[in-house]
Amino acid sequence: ISIQRAEMVPKIRKNRNYLEKENCEMVDRQGHPMGSGPVSDEQLNDLEAGRLGIRQKPGPNNSLGLAKFLFPNEYDVYLHGTPAQELFSRTRRDFSHGCIRLEDPAKLAAWVLSDKPEWTLARIKAAMMNGPDNTQVNLDKPIPVLILYSTAVVQPDGEVDFFDDIYGHDADLEKVLAKGYPYPG
Fold first, then answer.
1. Nearest to 73 by CA among 99, 93, 55
2. Statement: the pTM of the whole predicted model exceeds 0.85
3. Any alpha helices (H) in the chain, and if so which ranges?
4. Over the stretch 83-92, which tens digit does the pLDDT of each residue have?
5. Do residues 12 and 19 make contact, with C-beta atoms less than 8 angstroms apart?
6. Cβ atoms within 10 A of the Cβ of 165, count?
């Protein structure tokens, strides 16, 4: 909802047809589409208040690519494809709002669905190219997902590599450490 308020609502204020132009639609709290056309003042207020949501329709230009992997977490982070494959050739790749872009989502889907023999790589790719229809596949057994964020890594030879802290967590850690022992939990 923060992306909706901070980025999309201001664009809709400037152009009431913005959602249609970007292949997006308004949805109610249950995810049902709210129709198309220019956004009314009432709808704009509901979008800003979070009573309505925005989602981009499926397709090759969807910013989440052709596949999205949902897993439970409090941050609404998930793994997804991208139509912007050129971003993988860049050294710095923090272009999203916190989700994790996948270079080859079909290959990950094949691995995730390896216990479902009917989901071959060919069928997965066909489902991804299915146009406006979504295909949801639920897992029989959950797969643990562990995401680590680190600004320092010790290499096997003992060298330490440091990275930019794009989320600012190191500054928070430094404040806690500056207070000295005993450190809060």
1. 99
2. no
3. 2-3, 9-14, 18-21, 41-49, 105-112, 121-128, 169-178
4. 778 887 887 7
5. yes
6. 15
